[in-house]
Design brief:
By secondary structure, this protein is mainly beta. It contains 1 helix and 5 strands; from the N terminus they run ββαβββ. Strands 2-1-5-3-4 form a 5-stranded mixed sheet, covered by helices on one side. A hairpin with a 2-residue loop joins strand 1 and strand 2. It is globular.
């Protein structure tokens, strides 16, 4: 059995994106997002994923994932 990961084609915030992340938590880390920061929300295929489920929620090919996070600007 191989440990090789497969590049998954998903939609991330409305744009095509390739990832090897196996979970929502891994996807956030891959994107450089600190998942411990308050205010981050994630939806997969239009369903909100609870923060406590990020590590166990898989990322699958063709998923439509939205990551919303606050940012400062002016």
């Amino acid at each position: 059995m191989s440990d090789a990961k497969t590049l998954l084609s998903i939609r991330l915030n409305g744009k095509p994106y390739g990832t090897m992340a196996g979970s929502i938590a891994a996807l956030l880390a891959e994107r450089g997002i600190d998942s411990s920061r308050p205010g981050i929300a994630v939806a997969v295929n239009q369903k909100v994923v609870k923060r406590g489920d990020w590590a166990t929620t898989p990322v699958s090919a063709s998923d439509d994932i939205e990551i919303v996070q606050p940012f400062q600007g002016g």
